[in-house]
Amino acid sequence: MVEKEVRVWTRLGLHARPAILFVQKANEFACHIRIAKADKEANAKSISQLLSLKIRQNDQIQLRAYGEEEAEAVEALMQLLVQEPCSDAGDS
Amino acid sequence: MQGTPRRSDGEMKLCGLKGCGGLAEGRAKIWQRPLTESGSKHGRRGAPREDVGRLEEALDRASEELGKIVQRLQEEGRTEDSLIIQFQQMLLVDPEIVRAVKEGILEDELAAEDAFVRVMRQQISNLTGEGPNSDSEDYFAGRVSDYQDLMRRVLRVFRGQPTSLPRLREPCVLVTDELTPTEAIYILDTGMVRGLVLGRGGGTSHSVLIATSRSIPTLVGLGDDIKIIHNGDYLLLDGDACEICLNPTKEEMAIFEGRGKDRRSRYRILESLKDLPPVTADGARIQLKVNIASPEELDESLILGIDGIGIWRTEFLFMEREWEPNEEEQAGIYRSVSEKLPDKWVDIRTLDIGSDKHLPYHPPVREPNPSLGVRGIRFGLAHRNLLKTQLKAILRANLGGNLRVILPMVTMVEEVRLVREMIGHCMGELEKEGHSFNPQLPLGIMVEVPSTAYALDLFLPVSDFFSLGTNDLIQYFLGADRQSESLQDLLSPFHPSIVRFLRDIADASLKAGKPMSICGEMASQTLAVPLLIGLGFEQLSVPPPMFTEIKGLIRRLDRSRCHQVAEEVCALSEREEAKALLLEFLNNS
Asked: H-type helices in B409-480, by residue range?
């Protein structure tokens, strides 16, 4: 299992296009992939579950992948969530 | 929200909420979606496995239908519409949804369609259930129509029924309770719908967005009043006045046509002045530009022979939608305007959010004094994603080389330097991504914070041009809230301190040789224009409806006489004296 925590820069929950791209990417991998925010977890391949997490910019989320190509999957999805490196001014 | 109809000879008026502005008229066509039974007729028959098979078939078929719609929309460049439908497509292959439906079939012995409906309803109630922040409530509530649209489609496919859409053989004003996104797309693309009346829906529902992008005047929220309209009633729909007139009398037709004429005669007056430049009587050429909030305003202005766009208030691109426009979409919009004014500057002001303007999908931070808070460039630098996306879009759109960027609410030179750095990074990213862009992008600043206006020389090295935002400048300089109704009188541009301040600003910018345009309300106030020209300003930017009037005014003025009266005004100590002097001056021009 590979797990990574990341601060979300795209408005995944509110923004239709990134959510669609994220789920499409997740579905390219064979492994199971979960995305979690606080105490709620969702299947990253399910757009309805993803939206139900209501993820916003600056939310801290965890990505977990289990199985074939788990590391690549987490990496690829992280890229979609992190559009630019953290910067101080961006934290406000 | 619902109008009170006046009944007399079948003629009456109804009121609604604005969906999309404009005037439309035509015969009413009432459409009611046939009631679909919500589930299977007989419950499940046969083995569960069969129903799973039926389910998969139905989902495939529905997916095919949606795929065709998406393809057509993408070919037509309607990306936003296609996103709406793509979302529905993804629901059809959503593993959790499919799993839950199959569970319903295999474990709860439901028929395929009943299992499907149950899961869809669950999803819908999840969306409308708990109450998060109000902004996201709107977003999720908006998704409900997508789920319902999909649910109806799949049920229809289960039954092998064709789509039940209205047959429109002649132009009409369509009247119906609500439209799902796919219905709206299909119906409005027939080209037969002149106007749209909806019983339900808020101003930003998907069907309204779809109507607006096709410029179809739309009123929503009429509720039960739509039952008052009958097939064949002649309707006059005014999307701006938000009213519908049924079976109008001659008088009402005349009024309606008058409104249309007013909107058209404006074009005619503009036409006669169209080829005349804004030159003063003594030959001084004043640059006269317009301020816009959306590209739609520009079509009118094109006729007017403007000298460019003085300010494009881009926050309006971001508001009144459910999510921010992405880089691609923004680039397309900026490019379209750039192409309309190929040899004129188009000054794009970056997102000026905060104070009185908020984005529906961005939770507003509570500030005690929003106009002194995190707004303008402060907001931009605190949300660099947004700013970067906007900058990258502008870079990509600037292949014509006539776009410029203006930064709002600049207080420090450091802010401008930071943005220049960001632009550098943006260019680097665009190169890596293989997008072409124009590396020349002039960067200017709004002069609206007094500290900036006071020490303009500090900004000369970092700013290519200036735009004076008199509305905010006056507010900050006089210490009075623009949004306070009781203080409106105080916020006079003819206050002696303001007049002197403007004089100093004009002097500084003339000395520096860097152009300064005036883009606040003051530029379109007839009493203030001679003063501004007299103080030495040579660039004004006004709202499109004021363009011709101000052009006409400039042509009447003698600039050297304006110099004189401006000097006299500077020596006065009271606003009323200043106004009286300027009024007299105007009457003698």
From this structure: 413-433, 450-454, 456-459, 470-478
Distance CA B547, CA B574 (A): 30
Task: List the end-to-end C-alpha distance of chain A, in Å, as a whole number.
Answer: 33
Q: Is A88 on the interface with B (CB under 8 A)?
A: no
Among B95, B136, B388, the residue with its CB nearest the CB of A84 is B388
- Inter-chain residue contact A89 with B382, CB threshold 8 Å: yes
Q: Is B87 on the interface with A (CB under 8 A)?
A: yes
Helix (H, G, I), strand (E, B) or coil at B298: helix
Report the C-alpha dihedral over residues A56, A59, A65, A70, rounded to 10 degrees: 90
The mean pLDDT of B525-548, rounded to a whole number, is 91
Enumerate the residues of chain B whose CB falls inside 8 A of the CB of residue A17. Answer: 83, 323, 326
What is the reported pLDDT for B474? 93
Could you give the angle at the alpha carbon of B60 between the alpha carbons of B54 and B62, nearest 5°? Answer: 100
ipTM associated with this complex? 0.80
SS3 B65: helix
- Model confidence at A91, in pLDDT bands (50, 70, 90)? very low
Asked whether the beta carbons of B237 and B271 are under 8 A apart, the reply is no
With a CB cutoff of 8 Å and minimum separation 6, the contacts of B256 are: B23, B25, B236, B238, B245, B248
pLDDT tens for residues B268-310? 555 666 678 899 999 999 999 999 887 877 766 565 589 999 9
Q: What is Dmax (Cα atoms) for chain A?
A: 38
The verdict on a CB contact (< 8 Å) between A92 and B361 is no
Q: Is A81 on the interface with B (CB under 8 A)?
A: no
- Report which secondary-structure segment, H or E, holds B288: strand B287-292
Q: Is the pTM of this model over 0.80?
A: no
Task: Name the residue among B104, B142, B109 with its Cα closest to residue B122.
Answer: B104
Chain A positions touching B363 (Cβ under 8 A) are 56
Active site residue B570: no
Q: Find the mean pLDDT for residues B411-418.
A: 96
Residue with tokens 């009286």: B580
The nearest alpha carbon in chain A to B98 belongs to A46
